[in-house]
Amino acid sequence: MTVSPPEMDRVLEARSISKSFGPVHALTDVSILVRPGAVHALVGENGAGKSTLAKVLAGIEQPSSGTMTIDGAAFAPRDRADAKRAGVNMVPQQLSLVGELSLVENYLLVGSRRLVSRRSARALLKATLERARVDVDLDLPTATLSQAHRQLGEIVVALAEGAHTLILDEPTASLGPLEVGGLFEHLRSLCDLGTAVVLITHRLDEVRQVADDLTVLSHGENVHHGSAARLESTEIARLMVGELPPPAARSERRPGATVLRAAGVVAASTRDASLDGVDLAVRAGEIVGIAGVAGSGQNLLLDVLGGFVKPDSGTVAFAGTEAGSRAGASAAAFQRAGLAWIPEERTEAVVPAMSLRENLTVYSAAVGAARKRGGATRDARTGGTQTVEDTLSAYDVRPVRPELAASGLSGGNQQKLLAARELGASPAPRVVLAYGPTQGLDLRASQAIRERLVDLAVGGSAVVVASHDLEEILGVADRVVVMFAGRIVADLPIAEADTERIGRAIAGLVDGSAPDSPARGDVE
């Protein structure tokens, strides 16, 4: 589709933008030019200033200095609503749709035209869907939509509000390869219409796949701004983080006794595939990766394994306690027994209004006290000689300011804060359940978290890692379990888990049932 000249004139430009939060310089003299009809990738380490720059462009934060223009005219939004009226809108990493409401109702809630009728709102959204070549149900509660459709729905609402420049913060963090490909097709369609897209991402293959232009930030400063063409992933990585040390060699481990077991688990969900007779055993010293496209049941399985959802039938056993349809064990009981938990949605585990210190210590102290009453002695890593500052530094949480509210951190640094709390306990957790533990993290931080998971397994922890990112799973797993439509359809040792076999299983192209999980003895 040919873009009309008026649409092509809408260039968003920021010049010499600086932004400080007290003594912290988040941005220093940063410039960016966003062209209509192009995808502009914005990359950098966690804490490099990407989210701050995006919020300045979207009117959510005010720059300390610098200027912005749209089509040569001054652009100085006082708030997000002001920026939206000028055509610049940001879709946050943590999607803002109200799950109980449909897309039509979400638009009525946030749209600038407050007196618009439901009929006219639906007609506008339907026209926007057709223009963007997107197929999303307008009338279902958005909580029942897949993650990919919620992402597209948020984009459609932004377009209906009149956005000509879309800022997407880590839109692929919770999407699998198929969903990512579909999203990028839609983004290219939007670019054909003249929409400008700013894509914040840590996946360098995505930069090469879809980006026309590229800005790389490092420690709040521009280190590259220009065409994304002819830049190899290794060069982009070097610009972002410098030279990375080689990853630690995969160690040979002999798994011990079964620590966590699900037997005949059946559970229902409105947001994920219902579980249908799932059996899974995880042994001490073992890392089990759980793969599958979004909505295959892996999210619900981790909720059940963690005691957060009680199965309709079947049982989950861990450390002498059992949770099932007739059992009384809960997530709190499992945590007292030594379970660490990293959910897909970090907002379920990090309290934004609490300080970094409180997020690290209050939760840990409460769980630690409960464990002492139950005979366990797990103390927070922040106890003893380990200070909060030490823990934040060890997990590279930026800035190292214990009294800063967690809401003041970028999404990636909130993820590192969560990892510090859950993976940095002493003694180490007996079981780790982690969903996408490196989502939103840069290369260096991702490597550090994966090495920590391996270290925990070497020390005897049983580790389960679920992720939409197959690379994340293959980087740490000893076994890869593949889920499809709420069932385990493959259970492969890492030596047999090539991308072709996993890909066929993810697509449901397998014959027969999955093999039994190993170590079917009693749970230790």
Automatic annotation (TrEMBL):
Keywords linked to the UniProt accession: ATP-binding, Nucleotide-binding, Repeat, Sugar transport, Transport
- Does this entry carry the keyword ATP-binding? yes
- PROSITE patterns this protein is in? ABC_TRANSPORTER_2 (PS50893)
Q: Which SUPFAM superfamilies match?
A: P-loop containing nucleoside triphosphate hydrolases (SSF52540)
Start and end of every ABC transporter domain?
A: 12-244, 260-510
- Any one Pfam family here would be ABC_tran
Classification via InterPro entries? AAA+_ATPase, ABC_carbohydrate_import_ATPase, ABC_transporter-like_ATP-bd, P-loop_NTPase
The record lists the membrane-crossing segments as none
Instruction: Read off the Gene3D superfamilies from this record.
Output: P-loop containing nucleotide triphosphate hydrolases
- Would the keyword Membrane be found if you checked this record's keyword annotation? no
The terms under GO molecular function for this entry are:
ATP binding; ATP hydrolysis activity
Name of this chain's protein: Simple sugar transport system ATP-binding protein
